[in-house]
Amino acid sequence: MAFKLITDSCCDLPEKYINDNGLTVIPLMFTLDGNEYSDGSMDPKEFYSRVRRGSMPTTTLINTQRYLDEFTKILEEGDDFIYIAFSSALSGSYQCSVAAIEQLAKDYPNRRIAAIDSKCASMGQGLLVYHTVEKQKEGLGFDELVKFINETWPKVCHWFTVDDLNHLKRGGRLSATSAILGTLLSIKPVLHVDDNGKLIPMSKARGRKKSLAELVDAMKKSIKNPDGQMVMISHGDAGDEANEVAAMVREAFPGIRDIMINNVGTVIGAHSGPGTMALFYLGEPR
User: What is the reported pTM?
Assistant: First the structure.
């Protein structure tokens, strides 16, 4: 029986890639200025423009009933599925997907269904999905693909920086004092996602240019087998700077195969803010 790959909108993959590869992407939700939207339904430039003007978005996970509705539709169409979820350390959505899977396993006892915690975020999750799609094209079966995903997510390196510290403060990942002092001194934190899928501050850079360079410096220390790799960069409405980071990556690693660049989506962008810059690749250790 055929099986589909499913992920959620926190993968931040370009719409064209999603459509070209027949992916099912379940959107998370966000609220802005009193109105609720699905992730991806608002143009990123409009979203970040409103945030820059002072709008404060909030986000909503995918609850169990929505998962049941989406998963049941796929099963009724005759496909089994593997769901690659946004990090459980950053959202409760994965736990809701597990609850849905447990119910569906009773209702569809002969079907093959799985939900996997990617421990990834933004295009780190997208990079994991990308490599999974490539392996599915090579002919890997259901069990082989589940094994591949679980072996690969610990190798997906995430390095990112933010331009406005107040968004990390609002999310509880930075104290108010640190945000104020950091803003006054033009300190930009450099963070990564650890093996538990949590955001961890790793260093502090003085100024924007330095923080962007530190992303590539971190990549130099931890990338493994760069030749032929797909690299991904996501940004919070900072396309010109994303291209600058891409140029630094190409200079450092002329053998990489390609770089995919896209906006940080509205749900993750609600917590990271405009000017976020993130770099993703395969390496060890994460």
Answer: 0.94
